[in-house]
Amino acid sequence: QPEGFQVKSIWLEEDVCYVNLSSAQLETLPEETDLTVALEAMARSLCSLDTVEEVRFLVDGDFAEEYGGAPIADPYIALP
Fold this sequence. Notes:
Layout: E1 9-13, E2 16-21, H1 35-47, E3 54-59, E4 62-63, E5 66-67, E6 70-71, E7 76-77
């Protein structure tokens, strides 16, 4: 994960893991931070858990199209 990167909250509803990101944090991350790679890595890790089938990213508790240039509209689905 990028240095200083944190999530606001994370919870599980049935087999969907929700990761709530902070919009305020975008201002504190270095400009060259590649959030697409960071979020994909986080989603892959979460999907490796037996109880997680998909990961949905939210920003400040709401669904969003992107987060710091990273597309987050679609859920990340665990590969079989």
